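One such given next:
>
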Amino acid sequence: MLVSQCVLVCVIFLLALVSAGEDYYNVLGIDRTATEKQIKTAYRQLSKKFHPDKNPGDKDAEAKFVQIAEAYEVLFDKEKREIYDKYGEEGLKQQQQGGGGPGGPGGHDPFDLFSRFFGGQGHFRGARRGPNMEAQVTVTLQDIYRGRTIEFEVDVQAVCDGCGGTGSADGQRHRCGGCQGRGMKVVRRQLAPGMYQTVQMPCDECGGQGSVIAHACKTCAGRKVVRETRRHEVSVQRGMPKGARVVFENEADESPDWEAGDLYVEIVEDEHDTAGHLGFRRRGADTFRREVLTAAEAAHGGWQRQIEFLAGAGTNVTLARAVGIAVQPGEREVVRGKGMPVWQREGKYGDLVVEYVVVLPGRRTAGRDEL
């Protein structure tokens, strides 16, 4: 009897799981312990990826876009999230039907939510775009050789979460008394005695909007936007050329009045970082190195050196001369395949060019950092 009851409970539980929608945490790809910032970041990335304007005709992407908005609306709201964690989506629906507390999921236009993050009208096509932004990420030659993911921060203007970009604490705007809601004023100016000019100009009380805010949002002081520091990850690809840029779409300054522009991140090689360059420098896909020899080594040979290479442990470059083999000052040696990875050509590498510098007694030679 007890076994049959357990089986019945398991069956009911599985049926409940099947009938329920996909877990909101799974929808956003986050843990159940995710912070508000992590929830917001997940929404920003996924909503852009599955936006219908970027996936025309794709019904699955459209459904996913709606689902992402629902998940965010629930998990970013503390009270809704608490109910969801305890009772699931059904608990939210019951709460909504009972009229107590916040409403359940699916009660808002997902495009309205999208516009809070990226400005404009919640759409990519045909919207007025704001200015693009530029940033730089500095890397070493080792980073470019091996490839690396780097976190960086950028200070941007963001639509205020406190008021949803309205600037109003209560979400209301009222007709401007200065222009009676027209947004324009007729002003009479005296040009000379007995001469006047009548001009129409935007209302200085409402900024030409025709409405004013009675109760300004405390978060943004009625400005609709706030400054915030946003964290991103940029993937430095192997062999990336100098001046390469990575584009983060719609991650520039935001405003309720426009669609956010793009953030362009330039990958800058720190050519003065000797530790990260190990004495190498590059031109295109080839690497270069200056190796210093004593007069005796150059004249008589009989030496060998292990040079630490950019690829890391176990990939050292061996330079050597047998006894009796001389090296001329300025002589160059080419080591095949020890250059940089050729960008976007898997398995292709440039060469290493080693220039030998001979130090004569009583003389000094330029350091490697002067090459």
In short: The chain is about 25% helix and 25% strand. Residues 78-98 form the longest helix (21 residues).
